[in-house]
Write a structure and sequence with these properties.
Layout (H helix, E strand, L loop, with lengths): L13 E3 L6 E3 L7 H10 L24 E2 L6 H7 L5 E2 L2 H10 L2 H5 L6 H12 L4
Antiparallel strand pairs: 1-2, 3-4
Length: about 130
């Protein structure tokens, strides 16, 4: 949208819908300020335990930590949009898990020989993972 000195007339000019690439025109594509204010008032606040009076913040109880890339944008919405956040394995926890495995545990994963499991554990102990 080109810069205009008359902001009230911008809603009647041509613009590109970047979601579809279509060129559109008309004020009906814009949300009125009154609707924005009403939506703000009706917006539920999920960070607090109640909705009336003095509000107490909810407490966060983390059961795990997942390391993600620094280019992750809108991580709270990405699961809904179908985009997966690139996550990184916590290598120390993985190594601890691997060292605790028994032959019965890995049988279901397709590792059938004791020597294969021993080689994996040796690589962890030597710091190759």
């Amino acid at each position: 949208m080109p810069f205009s000195n008359k902001p009230q007339t911008v809603v009647y000019e041509l613009f590109i819908d970047y979601a579809t690439g279509e060129i559109k025109q008309g004020s009906h594509y814009f949300k009125p300020l009154g609707r924005t204010i009403i939506q703000y008032v009706d917006h539920l606040e999920h960070k607090f335990d109640s909705d009336i009076g003095i509000l107490d913040r909810k407490h966060v109880h983390a059961d795990s930590i997942v390391c993600i890339g620094k280019e992750a944008n809108n991580i709270d919405m990405q699961e809904l949009e179908g985009n997966r956040v690139e996550s990184y394995l916590n290598i120390e926890k993985f190594n601890e898990w691997l060292l605790c495995l028994t032959l019965d545990d890995v049988w279901e994963m397709g590792i059938e020989h004791r020597s294969t499991l021993k080689q994996l554990k040796d690589r962890v102990r030597e710091g190759e993972f």
